[in-house]
Structures are given as C-alpha cells and as structure tokens.
Design goal:
Elements: H1 2-9, H2 30-57, H3 89-103, H4 105-119, H5 128-155, H6 165-196, H7 200-204, H8 233-249, H9 253-256, E1 302-306, E2 308-313, H10 315-320, E3 324-328, E4 341-347, H11 348-354, E5 362-367, E6 376-380, H12 381-385, E7 390-395, E8 398-399, E9 409-411, E10 424-430
Helix pairs in contact: 2-3, 2-4, 2-6, 3-8, 4-5, 4-8, 5-6
Length: about 425
Amino acid sequence: MKTTVGRISETPPPPGPFRRGFWRSPIRGPWLTSVFGLVLLVGIPVLFVTGALSYAAYNPDLGPLNDQTPDKGLLGFYLFDWPTHPYWLYRLTQGVHVTLGAVLVPVLLAKLWSVIPKLFEWLPVRSIAHGLERLSLLLLVGGAIFEFVTGIFNIQLFYIFPGSFYTLHFYGAWVFIAAFAVHVSLKLGRMTRALRSRNLLAELRTDLAHTRPEPPDPDGLVPASPAAPTMSRRGAVGLVGAGSLALLVVTVGQSIGGRLRSTALLAPHNRNPGSGPNGFQINKTAASVGVTPALVGPVWRLEVHGRGPALVFTRGQLLAMPRHAAALPIACVEGWSTEDQLWSGLRLADLAALAGLPDGGSVLVESVQQPGPYSSVMLRGNQIHDPRSLLALQVNGADLSLDHGFPARIMVPANPGVNNTKWVHRLTFRT
C-alpha cells in the first residue's frame, strides 16, 4: 500500500495550471490574499445575518403562503416575530444586504484570483484532512459564486435559474456559510501571521519599481518563478477598492433615496417612476399579474371575515369610514425602497374589531391578482395592531393608481414590499 501511495505522490502534474510554474504573478502571496480575506471576514457575516433577517421578515412560520422554503427544518431555528418598529427596519436590513453584496463583488473576485493556484493543486487530495480542506474550499468557492450570481441576477430582474429564488438562495446561503466557517477555522491563524508579516502603510507606499515577491510560503501562493511585476500590491488594493466604491455609488442610492437615487444606475426600479402623487417605484404592474380595470371597477367589493357573518363593503363605503394616515416607505427584497409616502385608509386593527376579533392573532390577505407566490399572505397579530398598519385607499392625497394597488392595498411598517399586498379583495381575521 505504501508503494502505491508513493507512486501516486510521485506522479508529475499534468501540463498547464496544475504546474507551479504556470502561475507567475509576483504580487500573489499570503499577505495580499489575507488583505482581501480580512475584508470578506468582516463583510460575509454581515451579509449572511442581513439575509437571514430578510427571510425572518416574511414571517415564514405563519404558513406556506409566506414560506417559500417549506423544508427548512432546523435551519429556521432563529425565526422570530418580525417587529413593526422601527418602521424603516426592513428598508435598512435589506438595503445593507443588497448594497454590501454588490460592494463585495470586486473583493471576492480579487480573493479568488489570489488563491487560484490552490484550486489547481496537485495532487488534488493527499490525505483525509487535506481532502476535507479541499471539500470545504470547493463548497466555499462554489457557494460564493452561486450566492453572488443568483443575488445579482435577482436584483437586476433577470433571474434565469430553475426553481424559486427564495429556496435556492436560502439553502445556498447555509451551505456557503458552513463552508466559510470551516475555512476560517482552518486559515485564521495563517491569515493573522500573513497580515503581521508586512506593514500595511509601508506596502501601500511601495510603487511598481520596488515591488518584490513575498518569501516562499507553505501554501504555494508565491510563484516559483515570478515574472516582472506589471502592478504593485498598492495598485491591486487600490483597483479593488475603486471597483467597490464605484459599485457602492451606483447601487446605494436605491435604498437611501434623496439626491443619491439618481446615481443608482444598477437599480431597475429607479428608471422613470413617473410623477405626481403615485410617481414612485413599482414592483409588479397590474397587467403583469392579470389585474384589469374590470376586476377592480364598480363590481369590486371588500370582504371582511372573522367571528360571525362576513362583512362586504364597496369602496365608497370604505372611504366614508374614519380614515387614518401613516408615512411609510415600500422596501423590496431586491434592495430598492421608496421615500416615505403618506398613505391614507382604514386601520387593520379597526377592521379586525369590525370582524368581531379585536385581539386577532393573524389575518389572511387575498388579492384579485392571478394565483401565484404572494398573491395571498398572512400577517401576524403585532402587524394588525400597529396603529400605522393600514388598508390603504389613497396615497399622497390621491387615489391609488391601478399599478399601486387600486382600489385597496396593505401597508404595514417594516414589512417586505411583496407582503404589502395590492388589489386586496378579502381579509380573513383569525384568533
């Protein structure tokens, strides 16, 4: 057996990237890799936590209408009742998630470039421990690419992968973070030593003419026969930083709003939202989900179910009831959000009381739109009883436009936009 293992270990690597002489960049080495790794070590956990909070915001434990990942099992251990205070909470967490994801793309690509010789290591597996390390690396790289690509495609409204984005992105995130944790536990000591091996300020003052390869390292990142440098480490760090800054500038405005909204060039929903009281971003248009003027015209009625016979209202009757106002934004899983809009309508708590369930624990909201994901959703008790939670009939002093949910829509503080159901025709309050 020893002879066989010895023969395998002596097998020469195939030509190309499996040979150490193939990789010749003189700036590749443990220090530069660790600089990029440190940024990811800080950014990736924030990205994961904000993504997990985004999932919790949908209140998936209320039932299958809200839950796009019904087989999550123990992965949903952390779920909690999503709060309505502060009202901008989802706008913040999802804005950070999407913006940070975009900003980290150049860092991720630079990190992958810096360790690419490790991906072509020969032999691919030399022992059980080495095999586990390689497996964690495969899951780490594959998971990172999958999560970033699916996320970016989704926020650009160009999702082409089979299956639900929510399901694939959710499970992919858990695979990625598990591999990330294993990788960090294996590499943290080496990263710390590498960062201490060079002074950051001194390295950033080193120009191209004085750039030299790092000393040989056990991981084989430093090339055996380095070529002449064409970029300094200072240039590499600056290039990656400039790329991240550029992505920040063209992304963050969709969440922050104000004057920065015009800089959000990568935000599909930033383009021509229109003007007037209803001139703000729209996710789904009425036409895209089969809502026609006939469905929400004079024949439309709102049904309210609870304890006792169902109540049925025309829109005129709803407008004649005592109305309340709340200034709330719309915030979407794609990272964009609107400014605060002034919504006017009936409090959900008042409708629950009319239905005979003033202490209602949940409400089923149903839309006239075509059946599909989030055409119906569940809201929990704390969302019903927040005084800012409305069945909105008007916005900014005008009737809702058809695309914004005429004749009535849900508006709840800190609620994901897709759960603020439009074109509502039935509310069923439950204990």
